[in-house]
Structure formats: structure tokens, C-alpha cells
Structures
1.
Amino acid sequence: MAKNTKLKVLFVAALATTASPAFADAGAVVDVSDALTIIAGITVAVAAIGAAKLAPAATAVAFKWAKGALFS
């Protein structure tokens, strides 16, 4: 059983090393301009959502500190 497993591992390793150059194309350029345009368009919305989530957390921490300062 162990010999069969070692043979499978060797086969997969050999296949991985020989198959990868077939998929590599040094001249290929990926066009990411559409993705960057979309990301740039949603940055304001993402920042607003982040601020809306951060504000209650900061308020809760401020109340906790004030409570700790007043009642300690």
C-alpha cells in the first residue's frame, strides 16, 4: 500500500512539473482596467460603510471608558 502511495506522489509531482510550462505564456498581459474602474467607483461606498460600522464601536468604547472613570 505504501509503495502505491509513493508512486502516486511521484506521478503527480512529475505531472505538475511537466504540465505547468504548457500553461505559462510570458507574453500574455492581463487587462485589469475594468476591475480597477469598478473598485475606484465603490471606494466611497466602502469607506462610508466602514465609518458607519466603526462609529458605534468607538462610541461604545468611549462610554465604557467614561463609565470606568466615573464609577471606579
2.
Amino acid sequence: MADEKLYSNLSKLGFPIFEPNEDPDTNETLAEVVKSNDTRLWEGFPILLANAAENYQFSLGQVLQQLDNEEQKLLFHQLVLLSASVYSMYHLSFSWFNKLKKDFSDKDKKRIKTWRDNLVHRQALQEGDNQFDPERVTGLFELYFEQKVEKDRKRKEKFQEFSMEYALSQIFSPKQKELFKKKLEGDLLSKTEQEYYSRTVKKKVVALANSELHALSQKLLEQ
């Protein structure tokens, strides 16, 4: 996989420094990260793994199949343990990861605990020739979650906006909806608009504001 394609795929899996342009092959991308010999990417592996699994595309076996030798497979295992250490530090629990860690050995569990403590105390994480910077590991992960929270907030706001637009469209005609919004936002209505609002729109607004009508509507929806 060419570097440009790899970096593009990484962005689709949530690594914030790259721009996406196409859907990635998730397991191929994770395997290429292992092969990359790029510590920056390894330190972002907890993000990539969480995103891959969240999208139900991650397969441990498929990643292993695309690794060339035992050294790469050992490194992949270390990156999974690094991810577990990060999740443990932030008290995160994923159903997919709970299944995965059932196969961890006692040595693996000890390594996770040690690395979690290293992350908490900002001490380097060392395994053989590989060393991970705790500041970069946690910094990348926190940046990802900050961006995810903001993205989820905007998505929720957009959904609420669309939901409100749909609801208004079921009750008001386009012209009535326009006057409803203008009145709500305090915009000045012309004499003709004010008369039309008072004669037609306001009656619907009064009906919508009726608490008994609202309660009955909720009861009907629950049936």
C-alpha cells in the first residue's frame, strides 16, 4: 500500500492528522501500520483499533494473515496490548475488546497493568527495541475523543434541526412555517403577515401549546 493511500485510510479510521478520500480496507490498513516502522502511527494505534472495531470491520485473524513474519505479528500483539493499556487508563470498556482480552495471557495482563501505570505517570513504555512516548499516546487519544465528542454534538444538533423541520412541515404550510420562524426569532412582520399570522398560524400554535393535547398525542404514540 502506497504511503498516500495509507495516510488517507488512517484518517478514515480516526487518526486526526490525515485527510480521507476513500473508504479503507480496515484490516489491511491496520496491518500496514504495523509494517510501517513509523512510531507516530504506532502511538495512534489505540485510536485506529477502537474505530475499526466500532465499525464492525476489525478482524484479528485477517490482520494476522496480512503480516509477513513472526516479528510483525509480535509487534501487532504489542500494539493491541498498548491499546488495552490506554483503554484501561481511561476506564473504557468495549464489548468487542472484552472478548478479545479473554485470550490474553497472565504475562499480557501484567504488561497492560505496567503500561497503564507508565501512562498515568508519564513514563516511557518499553518493549524490546520499541519505545512509546506516553505524552504522544495519550495526547493523540484525547485529541481524537475531543473531536469525536464535538462531531457527535454537531450530528445531534443537525438531527434535531432536521427533526424539527420535518415536524413543522407536517403542521404548517411553507408560508405558515416562515411566519412561525420569523415570529419566534422576533423579526418584524408586515401588516399583511401579522394579520395572516393572527388569523391562521397562531391558532395552530395555541393548539400545539396545549398540554392536554400533547399528553394525548404521547399516549397515542405509545399504543
3.
Amino acid sequence: MGALSWWHWAIVLVVLVVLFGSKKLPEAARGLGRSMRIFKSEMAEMANDGDNKPKTDQSVDAPHELTSGDSDVDVNVKVTDETKKSA
């Protein structure tokens, strides 16, 4: 009583063709296949995220200390009353 025999599957197939038509079934199968492919890739990506260890401090760049020798930074900033009010 547990498994379906071949004639059960034939009845299910006939009912599906009658309900959805022969044109809609291939589109539905393609959609199901795409959904399964996306689901599997997302599951694999989630599994890989758990395997990755956090990077060590060596991979992170240390903050750059500003010196007076840096040509692209203007160290001499004048503070006026207007800038004090805006801050």
C-alpha cells in the first residue's frame, strides 16, 4: 500500500496533462528546474560561508598616520568664529 505502481503514475500524468495542457507542463518543469538550481547554489554558498575563517589582522591595512610630509593633506587649518558656530 506504500509505493505507487506504474498505473498510478499514468493516471497522475493524464490528470496533469488535462489540467494544465501540454504547453504549460514544459514551462512548469523549466521553472521548477531553475528554482532547484538556485536553491542548491544558495545552499552551497551558505555551507561555504560557515567554512571561511575570519581574516587575521595582517590582511587589514593599518590606519595611515598623517605627518606634515604628506603633500595631499593640508595640516594647517585655520579655525574661525564661523567654523566654531557650524560645529
